[in-house]
Amino acid sequence: MIVLKWKALQFHNIFCIFPPWMRKCLASVSHLESDISPYSQQNSNVENVFRIITDSRDPHSLKRSLKSSQILLSNELIDGVLKRARFSHSDPLSALELYKLTSKKKSFLPTPYSLDTMLYILGRNRRFDEIWELLLESKRKDQSLITPRTIQLVLARIAKVSSVQQTVRSFKKFRRLVPEFDVSCYNALLRTLCQEKSMADARYIYHSLKHEFRPNLQTFNILLSGWKSSEDAEAFFAEMKDIGVEPDIVSYNILVEVYCKGRDMKKAYEVVDKMRDKGIDLDVITYTSLMGGFGLIGQPDKARDILKEMREYGCYPDVAAYNAAIRNFCIAKRLGDAHSLMEEMVRKGLSANATTYNVILRSLYWSNDLRSSWNLYKTMRAARCLPNTQSCMFLIRLMKRQEKVDMALELWNDMVCNGFGSYTLVSDVLLGLLCDLGKLEEAQKCFLQMLEKGQKPSQVSFKRIKVLMDLAGKNEAFLKLSEKMSAFTSGSWMSRSDLDELERPVSAFIFEGKLKPCDN
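The chain above was modelled as a monomer; its predicted structure follows.
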């Protein structure tokens, strides 16, 4: 009880420093402090096991630490720990050791979620040999763990660094891994090519392989979603109907989105009218596409009106719908209206996610407003919304630009203590700031923290700190750093896709996350 009161007092003290709009956003959730503990027992166990695998240096110490912790390992717990490892960008081999350790137990069978999450972690770090070894082991233990979702997840990571031909060859390896190599497997390949390569590649592979399987409605919806030209989409839509495949709401939603992306709202509404004539009720995806379209043509108020309209038709906005409307106001540089919608979303019982905050952070980043960005970050943390890599990058880049060392170190310590964001990407900017200002002690500490977390700093950061340590005459300390760095393999450890995302303007994110399969 004392702990809960102290936590509530902490929350109140933080709450009071926020500007009025932020306090309104948090008002509807602050009462939760007195009703529930900050973390359930399950969450506490997830954190403890996550820290064990992060701190363990070898399989023996991992096994010993888990045993001494007396934490009962369950499927739910392992799912949570691997999810935690995924979003914290922690060492993939440490997570793999935990997965292998639990998989070896006769009474313990991993879940498909655990397998897919582990494969994602390995794929992100380009550990493809380990991926195939894990898949073969999963086949021996329980072939049903390998699903079409698994195929798509693995192929997506391969396609990022390989040619179309190599991706297709990898796809064919799954013939001997999955229980049934059917149309759903081919759909996974086509979806991957649409997302990671090009529509032309997907169409070419479809025509090359269509004699091997019978296309279904999902096949055509996948291929339809890849078109960016409305003329091409219309032609493919007609081809789909010609062979007797009747479009469903997904098909129509894709067509609506194509028109909205092309700023042709008249044709988008013609499709909407056709859907209603056929008795197809518009869903939240349809309305979200329309809101995105109005954002592109500079009419954010019409997009906000859609939030009201959809409720009248019995379709209630979700977080993604609100994010689309908030994004439109950010594009129009009307942050006050964006904040108002965020408040409305909270009042309606929805919780802002990382995308919500990132949309606003992006606008603040481009306007060079560090103070508002930092306040928004504090709001995000108080609301227990875990920042992601993009959130951290917006902040750390502003801090470097304005040479705010204390803020940058506070952000970094939050990341290290709570395990969010990419250490590699953020440390590149942070160490650049510290080295530029001659903050050797702080730079050395951050560098060591990364190594202790099992993360390999980039060569750029390593060279920067080397120059600074040479100038300071700390040759012995540098040799120790070099030894620790040499413990890592020389392969690529981190994708820079998050970094590339930062360079895109706010308007490029209107349709972010829409009609694409969730890569969880």
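The chain has a mean pLDDT of 84.
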